Structures are given as structure tokens and as C-alpha cells.
Amino acid sequence: MNLTYFLFFICIVVCTLIITYWAAKRSGTTSHFYVAAGSLSGLQNGMAIAGDYISAASFLGIIGTIALSGYDGFLYSIGFLVSYLIVLFLIAEPVHHLGKYSLGDVICSRFPNKNIRIVMGFGAFIISILYMIPQLVAAGLLIRLLLDIDYSVSVLIIGGLMTMYVVFGGMIATSWVQIIKTVVLMSGTFLLSLSVFSRFDWDVHRLITKVTEESVLGTSFFYPGHLFTSPWEVVSLQLALILGTAGLPHILIRLYTVSNRHEVRRSLMTSMGIIGFFYIMTLVLGLGTVALVGSTVLYASDPTGNLAAPLLANEIGGDFLLAFISAIAFTTIMAVVSGLVISATTAIAHDIYHHVFKKGNASEKEQLRVAQLAALGVGFISTMFALGLENMNVTFLVSLTFIVSASSNFPVLFLTIYWKRFNQSGVITGMICGLIASLTLLILGPQIMDPTHGWIRREAILPLNNPGIIAIPIGFLAAIIGTLFGQKQSEEQYAKFYLKAETNVTTRREH
Amino acid sequence: MERLLQQYLRKKKQFLYPALFFLFVFYFSLPLTLAYFPDQMNQFVPYIGLTWGWLYTFLQFIVTFTLAFLYMWRARELDRLADEMKQEEKR
């Protein structure tokens, strides 16, 4: 390992540890630990949301996909951005008004029930863990590749760091790691994009001509159809993406870290701005990779295209820029996995321990201690899993997260807030059927069942890579059917709840 | 209170229903037009050096931000109504 790399990494690790130390000194209450005591501004939280959301799969994966598949790769990223409108229009403000620390709080403010807590806590835990493990595996492989450190050592370093941030610094440290990541990631990709343009004398046409010359796809690089073959596949993926964000626990709990609805909206506007700009830059970087590195070289070094950004950096700025981009990728992963650790921790310590085991009677000190223990446990377990899964292809788990959340959390949240007739049995059946349906359909699909390289070596039963178009309606239908079989709730209670959801006004009067 | 709430919900729905409808139609039309009219989508738009497919994709960004800004604008009015309701509830 050479010195430039080492210095960049040490610099990031030291910076984030100083933040954690600083955060640990002011994080004395559960409110500080879970939601930074609602003390962030909309701008800060917006940057943190972007930092929580843009994973290594976006940073490395989408650039590579654009470089290899052209137009379709860019099409992929649209859904990630548009999904924020669904969060902004339908989910964000009610979630902020109704909950305290978790999504379980939101549902239980309408249906205060032990079983619902368990189901919601379990759902949030599963989604966060399933998302965290592939991130850790990818991180381990990436660091091994870039720094030439052993896979287990790199996973242990990342797992240990993310656990430390959360155990000692809680949401404050996590938020600031995410904010720093956004600043570093955006400035790095912006710098890289400018360098790409400068190589072509700021002439877009020259860049495009060069891309068509260098890509194996030729002019058809700019035409659709290289990644998605069936229209159902695209629609299904887009549906899961657009509804998935509105059910992701680690994104939605960030809405508690600001103090009022105005700041909630500003958070989302800020993060949309950052994410939109980021995806435009991935397009430039994808084109730049094809033009300057060439798609044959890219494919030869890694058939998934994940090395596009590092290769491009190496081509433009040599070893130094490559070290910088690797450090960015490392920070990107750290910020995302820390956000997932805190979301899984909230599910265990707040929903399950505090509300189910202790029936809401655990003392402040006890809650904080349990939360820290839970964070330690979550970090430990996911690191162990990641260590064991070195040689497994687990990238499909990332797309799984959006499908699971769009078919379980999203329907339940949406119906709880907006459907007068909805009830407890609807919540339970919706969550459970949504979870089971999305997992089963994925197992039956080509991501797991594949005659040559699948976990199950046989022809896929379901031809869809992304079963969202089937799983999401199942989640909604199960919630609705469960409701029709359950007991009717009083309409007056819903009127009060809905008033609170929309306006944050708590009424004592009867209507 | 009841009057203010009605006003609040009317204003909200007035924006939200058309906005959501438009969003879904506009968003899902892109993959569908690509799938069913690939030749037309690969034609170049007159005067702009882009194909219809790329133009539509970039429009998604513009439309997304326009809708978000419109909502922010409408939400300021809604905030005022919500504050009034809060005042009334305190009395």
C-alpha cells in the first residue's frame, strides 16, 4: 500500500473519530441518541439525507452501468430522484408530526398495540440489515481491490468504525459523518466531471463523438434497450424505486432530526437538489469513462462496471486522484452503513425493548444503555455476516430493499395516514404479506434461480428480476383485505389522528 | 376549527390530486413510450441535438423540481392555516 492512500484514509478516520468524540460529549439523552434532539437545520438534514441515500451502489454502480449500458443506465437513476416527490407529498410531514423516534411510533399513534410494534420493529430491522450486509461486502471487496488489504481486515475496520460512531455518537455523529460524506462526494465528483469536460475542450459534441467511437455499442450507446429487455421489467423496477424510498426506515427517521414541518420540507428539497445534481454528474462520469478509458478496458477489469470511477480517476489524475476517489468511496460506504446501524438500533431498542418488553416504562438511563448495547450487537452481527459472505454474490439484496419497503412499509404507512377504515388487522396482514411476498418472489426470480451462477441452480420460475409490480399490489391488497375482516375503528379517533397528521394540532375537543 | 380544517384540506387536495396524477402519468410514460415507440424516441428533436428519449429523460428532472417548488409554495399557505388552527385550539 502506498503512502498517498494511507494518508487519505487516516485523514478520514481521524476526522470522523473527532466528530464522534465531540458528539459523545453532548449526547446524553435518548432524544440526542435517536434523533439528535431535533436540532439539525433543514439544510444540514438535507445534506445528511443525501449522504444516507447515495450508496456505494449509486456512486460506483451507476457510473459503471452508464458506461456499459449507455442510456438505460441513466434511466435507472431517474426513479431514485422522483421517489422523493412521493415522500414530500404524502409521507414526510405526517411522519414528522406523528412519530418520535421510529416508524413504529407513527403507526402506533393511531393503533397503540403491542403486536403492531413488534411487526413494525421487525420490518425496520430486516430492511436495514438486508441493506447493510451487501454494503459491507461491497466495501470489503472494494477496499481489498483498491488498497490491497485482506478482505476480512477491511470488513472488520469498516464494521468497527460504523459501530463506534453509533454507539458513542448516536444520531449526532451519524448525521455529521453523512454531511461530510455529501460534501466530499459532491466536490470530488464535481471536480472529476470538470476534468472530463476539460479533456474535450468543454465541447460536449466532441465528448459524444468520442463515446460513440470508444464504446463497443457504437452509436446505439445513446439508444435504450441494452439493460432492460422487457417493458414489464422496467415498469416493475421503476415502481419499486418510486414507492420504495417512502418506506425506507433509515431515510424516514432522519425526518425527526429537525424541529418543524417547514424544516422537514427544506430537508427534502435540499436532498433532492443534491441527488439530482449528483445523477447528472454520474452521466458525465459514465460518458467520460467510455471516452477516456474505453469500454473494453472497463469490462476486462470488472464485468459489473463497478471500477468505472476509479479507472477514470486514474486516467485523469493518476495515483493521487485515484487515492482521493477511493477515499470518497470509503466515506460513502461509512455514511450509509452508519445510518443503517442507527435505524436497526432504533427498531430493537426503542420499538421492541422499550415499548414491547418494558411496555413503555424503561427509564431514560436504561433506554440509552440498551440503545448503545443494541447498536453494538447490530454492528457485530452484520460484520460477522459480511465476513462469511465474501464469495457470495449479494448485490441483489440492494434492489431487494426497495421492493421490500415498497410492498410492506409503504402500503401500511400510506393507509394508516390516509384511509379512514384502516385497522390493526390490516397493518399486520399488510406488513407480513408484503414482506413474505417480496422475499418469495425474489427467490423465485432469476436473481437467485439461475442455471449457471444462481444460489439455486435451475431455471427461474418467475422471469422478473424486480418483482415489484407483483409484490407491491400484494402488499396493498393484503392490507385492505385484512382490514375488511377486522374490527371497525371509531371515526372520531381517526378525525383527531388525521388532524394531527396533517397540521400537528392536537385537539381535546370532540367534533 | 372545522371551517379552517375544511379550507386546509380543500387547498391541499386542489394541489395534490392533479400533481400526483400528472407525476405518475409523466413518470411511467417514459418507460412505456421507450418500449412501444422505440423508433420515434430515437429520432432527433428538430433544432436540439437530442433524441426524444433523452429530452424526455432530462424533462423528468425539470418536472420533478417544478412540482417540488409548486408544493413548497402551496405549503406556505397551508402552514398559515395550520398555525391559525393551533391558535384557535389554544383558546
UniProtKB/TrEMBL annotation, chain A:
The keyword Transport applies. It is found in: Cell membrane. Keywords: Cell membrane, Membrane, Symport, Transmembrane, Transmembrane helix, Transport. The chain crosses the membrane at residues 6-24, 45-68, 74-92, 119-147, 153-172, 235-256, 277-300, 320-349, 370-389, 395-419, 426-448, 468-486. InterPro entries: Na/Glc_symporter_sf, Na/solute_symporter, Sodium:Solute_Symporter. It is a multi-pass membrane protein. The keyword Lipid metabolism does not apply. Belongs to the sodium:solute symporter (SSF) (TC 2.A.21) family. NCBIfam families: sss. This is Cation acetate symporter. It comes from Aliibacillus thermotolerans. The lineage of its organism: Bacteria, Bacillati, Bacillota, Bacilli, Bacillales.
TrEMBL record, chain B:
The keyword Membrane applies. The chain crosses the membrane at residues 15-34, 54-73. InterPro entries: DUF485 (IPR007436). It comes from the Bacteria. It holds the Pfam family DUF485. Keywords: Membrane, Transmembrane, Transmembrane helix. This is DUF485 domain-containing protein. It comes from Aliibacillus thermotolerans.
